[in-house]
Write a structure and sequence with these properties.
This protein is of the alpha+beta class. The chain contains 13 helices and 8 strands. The two termini are 16 Å apart.
């Protein structure tokens, strides 16, 4: 590759890394730790640490009755109830307040007792630090820019790297030059080992962050699927069907479905619906991306949304979040995500130190050229 082109690529690689180094460290470190979100929530909220393997004696109808008695659902209103699963041995439902994401009621699935409110929002803050830098004002946009900077760094680093496969198994432990060689070797070694993972994380993270900013046409293409028939609003009060039989029927509509929550819409009215959402273990369809919708009065099946049977874009979209957050495997996979997820933070730190050291040497007259023609450090 021509020397001037290498120098230009190195400039892009350096500036993308240096300008966003602090944000990359924050976003990547918080995201790597947040991979253990369920475990963090379980550990940091002792009052909610009820036994998830105990038999659930309270069914969904009893849970809904007790939770809605404490937080009534308005006639024709909507509600979402989380179901017991894995580390979660309880039902939960949001309070109808402006802090709905945080204020929830919890019901022990074994005893049927209302549990104390959560004591810690540690995971919530970690997740939203990663997703939107704790800012509701275009926070996702800034995280998306971080993702673009990571993509630029990964691609330009790959293009200027001469000995990618050699450096996978070799690292020079040299300390005599103030640590410059060691820092450069560590930067290249970490980048080479984490290349594919960092590329995947940057691509999926950039899309997830900027998805809300793309055109409606692209979003419509990704969400393409059978159109839900339009049903006129029917405000007649009606008796709701039982949830328990619907939960038993849902896996027959989507084989392998493990329900994790139910959405109630237009509750108490003749046109009310129940949506049962859940995971498909062993696949990349996770966290409510598989859904079955029923008429809440008659129990008739209205819609099945199984990403495995839909088009390419729908399947890709269903896989993005599991790929990015690593919650499609067990504890071992999460440990891998934690380790590899911390690597971009280390790359940002070592890259920034290399850049500042190089600039200092150039200003001191020990470098060659003006910084554009010197090329990447060896």
């Amino acid at each position: 590759m021509h020397r001037d082109r290498v120098a230009a690529l190195y400039d892009v690689h350096s500036w993308a890394g240096v300008m966003f180094s602090v944000l990359v460290m924050i976003v990547c470190a918080s995201g790597a730790i947040a991979v253990f979100g369920e475990e963090i929530d379980h550990w940091s909220n002792p009052a909610l640490r009820v036994a998830s393997d105990a038999p659930a004696r309270i069914d969904a109808d009893q849970a809904l009755q007790r939770l809605s008695a404490a937080a009534p659902i308005d006639a024709g209103g909507s509600a979402s109830m989380s179901l017991p699963h894995r580390l979660q041995g309880y039902y939960s439902m949001p309070f109808p307040t402006r802090h709905e994401r945080l204020d929830r009621l919890y019901l022990d699935a074994t005893s049927g007792e209302l549990l104390p409110p959560r004591q810690s929002y540690l995971f919530w803050y970690l997740r939203h630090l990663h997703v939107r830098l704790l800012s509701d004002w275009n926070g996702r946009l800034f995280v998306g820019l971080v993702g673009i900077a990571m993509l630029l760094s990964v691609v330009t680093g790959l293009l200027i790297h001469k000995h990618l496969f050699r450096d996978l198994l070799r690292m020079r432990w040299k300390f005599g030059d103030g640590g410059r060689t060691l820092m450069s070797e560590l930067h290249k070694w970490v980048g080479a080992w984490g290349l594919l993972f960092h590329l995947m994380i940057a691509l999926t993270g950039t899309w997830l962050a900027l998805e809300g900013y793309v055109s409606a046409a692209i979003r419509a293409a990704i969400d393409a699927g059978p159109e839900t028939p339009h049903v006129a609003v029917d405000d007649r009060p009606a008796t709701m069907t039982s949830l328990a039989p619907l939960l038993l029927r849902a896996p027959s509509a989507i084989p392998g479905l493990q329900p994790t929550y139910v959405d109630l819409d237009r509750w108490g009215m003749a046109d009310a619906t129940v949506t049962i959402a859940g995971d498909l273990p062993g696949t990349l369809v996770q966290h409510g991306m598989a859904r079955v919708r029923y008429n809440a009065v008659s129990g008739a099946l209205l819609e099945v949304r199984d990403a495995r049977t839909r088009g390419f874009w729908a399947q890709l979209r269903a896989a993005l979040e599991p790929l990015h957050y690593g919650y499609y495997g067990g504890l071992g996979l999460k440990l891998v995500y934690l380790l590899l997820g911390m690597m971009p933070a280390l790359l940002s730190l070592t890259g920034a130190l290399i850049w500042f050291d190089r600039r200092a040497r150039l200003r001191g007259g020990r470098g060659s050229g003006d910084g554009r023609t010197a090329g990447p450090p060896s």
